[in-house]
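Students often ask why we bother predicting the structure of a whole assembly rather than each chain alone. The short answer is interfaces. A chain on its own may look different once its partners are present, and contacts between molecules only exist in the joint model. In this exercise we take four input lines together and write out one structure for the complete complex. Read the inputs first and try to guess which parts will touch.
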Amino acid sequence: MTVALKKPPRSARKPKGDGHMRRGEILAAAEKIFIAEGYAGATIRKIADAVGVSSTALYMHFRDKDQILLEIGKEAIEKLLSINVALSQEPIDAVEKVRRMLDAYMRFAFDNPNTYQLVFCGSNEAISIEKQQAVSDLGDRCFDEFSGPIREIAAAGRLKTGTAESAAQVLWAACHGIVSLVITKPSRNWAPAEELMQVTLDGVMHGLIADR
Amino acid sequence: MTVALKKPPRSARKPKGDGHMRRGEILAAAEKIFIAEGYAGATIRKIADAVGVSSTALYMHFRDKDQILLEIGKEAIEKLLSINVALSQEPIDAVEKVRRMLDAYMRFAFDNPNTYQLVFCGSNEAISIEKQQAVSDLGDRCFDEFSGPIREIAAAGRLKTGTAESAAQVLWAACHGIVSLVITKPSRNWAPAEELMQVTLDGVMHGLIADR
DNA sequence: GCTCTGGGTGATTCCCGTTTAGTGTCAGGT
DNA sequence: ACCTGACACTAAACGGGAATCACCCAGAGC
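Now the answer. The structure tokens for the assembled complex follow.
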């Protein structure tokens, strides 16, 4: 009842994370909190507590908070990229490829709203451009994969308006528009998500691409 | 040269703002800083300094920081609303109304990127739903004004896909998509804004609305 | 003269991300 | 067996945000 109070900090100390083990632990905890509470809610201290480690320890493995969250974003985009890569290798019509890529894109956004916001919405205006470079590069590769079939379509003279470049950007933007609005303004009276995706896809595909 | 150092806080004190004068002063200063430095950059302290008043004084006139910035957003949307109201009263075809409203919307966004982000992008995930109510209501009225002609078009059986409700949302979202991406991701290789607006409008109008 | 009131203030609180100055542990060379 | 240095980690502190507190004071109305 007397002593045994001088040493608890020692016993409470978390054992070493055996190199990069700890890094994964941090990311896992951060992702859970981030998905549940968004960018602002995922504080360094909360993440550290979840891992069972002091907040300072996170700086052993990551330069700063943004790097932790962008890492999460990176992993998410990699999934998106792999979907696009897989689709672009399917032996199907370029138009069908475009449609499926956009569909997958919107579903991805609805399935991972916080991550989507982190990466694709300006929610992170605080994050400097350079820090986003890694994620941004992945995003570019996603877009490139998507641009391929569009260029095919353009080359076939089936583009109703714009260039391959601007058409690709507009197609992407239309899908981004609907998902980002639904995600960031959940209180509005939105039509069912399925219907919105459908109408967006139909409208924008028919509007930009000549069918046949 | 000796004293005159004990009293400056007194002489430096700003005279009373004569009621609601001060409120306008604060809004003006806040808007300037906010437009120049965005949401995060417009801190209470900076705004107060610009007005020449202590940070606490702002809480005399506004409940909190968000209310100040949302007030700015409100004024901006009012402009947008008045444009829509004016357009909806013009004696022109409903389709032309829709096109002009969307065009005005995108130009407004490009002209007021920070304000647009504040109001329409999730950059303010920290702002609680209820606080946004006033702005949100104005947004609804804007959308209603826009929905009018769309309903006309739907009633005329000229909607290629979706309902009046979902078509209106998708049209809006497409325009939101392109402007929000260009605004929040300025580092990407975007096609010229004019071209993007043109392609978006053409694509989405032809895709959703039967011409004639 | 007096009080009451409302715009104003400095100090304080709490939380954030980040930095500093360490501490304990262990692998490997001697 | 002993040093040594790298490493994972820590408590404490810093600076800066929003917001709140307990006051203060000039002036209007009596």
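Check your guess against this: Confidence is low (pLDDT under 50) at residues 1-12 of chain B.
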